[in-house]
Each structure stands twice: as structure tokens, then as C-alpha cells.
Amino acid sequence: MLEVLGLQVRYGSITAVRDCNLTASAGTITAILGANGAGKSSLMKAISGLAPTSAGMVRVDGTDVTRMSTHERARFGISHAMEGRRLFHRMSVEENLKLAWDFRNRGGVFSQALDQVFARFPILAERRASQAGLMSGGQQQMLILSAALIHKPRYLLLDEPSLGLAPVIVQQIFSVIEEVRREQGTTVILCEQVAALALSVAQQGYVLRRGEVVQSGPAAQLAADPALSAAYLGA
């Protein structure tokens, strides 16, 4: 279980996240919804250790990780795929995956992990020697997701995985997200602007507005709530 308790993130005089509380139960998908500027990305970065917290706590399986570095949190099984398709664009597909593999250095056989990636996304096998920066947006998102999954993390943080992608690619990406939750027991925290899309795969959801949780509950309940859009669309 991953817990966020009274979390606050500040950038100078600006408070991006304030008094945030959420729980991501083991083996579930939790949707974090909100418009641009709602604080979704700052919350995700605070969970993975990329943004400092000014108050509150992040707890993983009962252990307080708030003061741990990103590296240390990765050893707890936290993997974070940020928005913006952040890849090493001049490196090949395989080189990007090898870099992700070496980051945690937890043992295992890279060639076996690579085979699993290519079985999930055959297009990456075809493009394994291609520079990442020369691939389509959909192929880049497949690579980012594969890099985040290569060590079979217990906690997967995904920030706007559908952004700018064609519907057929979005469907493929979300099928993989549901697959790893179901087959590997991965706990997924999914930030999305497209509420209906996120809630269609999630078990629970939280709506952020101006850095605060304004609504939460089971995903099906949120999806059926006509008032959701009013809370969700206001930044």
C-alpha cells in the first residue's frame, strides 16, 4: 500500500499541493484527475522523490520514505514515468532500455527482460536500433512505459500516458497498464486529464483542484457522478 498523508509541495511562494491525503491499495489502479495546473505532476514527483515536500509524509508498505532519495525509493519498487516523453533521443531503443535496466542494478538477465518488452510491444523490436527521437509519439510512449516496467516495479506512477496519442495507441497503452496490474500485482497511480479514460481502468480515484483533493471515491462512483466535471474542469 502507498499512502500520502497531509502532503504539501511548494515552489517558493507557490503552493502546488496542499494537505493532500490519498491511499493506493496494493494491486489496484488509482486515478488522479484534474485540469492543467491542478497539482497532479507535483504530487507524482513528490511521491517518487523528484520534488521536495514542505509538510506531510509518503509511506510505502508502512515505511516512511519522505526523506529518501529517488534512488532509495526505486529500491522500494517505485517507478515513475513522467509526462513529456523524456527519453535519451539520440540513443537507440535498446540503449534506452539498457539504461533503465542499469539504473536499479538489482540483478536478473537483461536479455530476458528485453524479450518481454518486445513481446508486449513488437514495434519496439523492429525499431530496437533506431534513435528514440526519430520514432512516433506513440512508439516513444511505448518505450517510456517499457523502461518504467523493465524491473517489474511494485508501484508504477504514470503521468499523462495518453497525452497527444491516437486512440488506437491509447487503447494499447491502457491494455498494458491493466495487464501488469492484473498479472504482476503492480499498484498503479495514474494521472490523467481524460477522466473517463482513467476511470474506465481504475478502481479508485481522486480529483485535484488547485493542489487540493476536492473529491474522491470508487472509480465507478466518480464516473457516474454528474458533478465530477464541475470539480474536474476548474483548475
Written overview of the protein:
This protein is 39% helix and 26% strand. The chain is α/β, with parallel strands linked by helices and 235 residues long. It has a single domain (2-233), classed as Rossmann fold, CATH 3.40.50.300. The strands form 2 sheets. Strands 6-7-8-3-9-10 form a 6-stranded mixed sheet, sandwiched between helices. It starts with a strand and ends with a helix.
Compact description:
The protein is of the alpha/beta class and about 240 residues long. The protein has a single domain, classed as Rossmann fold (3-Layer(aba) Sandwich), CATH 3.40.50.300.
H/E element sequence: EEEHEEHEHHHHEHEHEEHH
CATH architecture designation: 3-Layer(aba) Sandwich
- Count the domains: 1
Question: Quick one: how many beta strands?
Answer: 10
Content-based structural category: alpha/beta
Note the overall shape.
globular
**What is the CATH homologous superfamily assignment?**
P-loop containing nucleotide triphosphate hydrolases
Residue fraction in strands: 25-35%
- The N- and C-terminal alpha carbons lie at a distance of 29 Å
CATH C-level label: Alpha Beta
Query: Which percent bin holds the helix content?
Result: 25-40%
Key terms:
235 residues; alpha/beta; Rossmann fold; six-stranded mixed β-sheet; four-stranded antiparallel β-sheet
Topology:
Layout (H helix, E strand, L loop, with lengths): L1 E10 L2 E11 L4 E5 L6 H9 L6 E6 L2 E2 L5 H6 L2 E4 L11 H12 L5 H11 L1 H5 L10 H13 L5 E5 L7 H18 L2 E6 L2 H7 L2 E6 L2 E7 H5 L4 H6 L2
Parallel strand pairs: 3-8, 3-9, 6-7, 7-8
Antiparallel strand pairs: 1-2, 1-4, 4-5, 9-10
Helix pairs in contact: 3-6
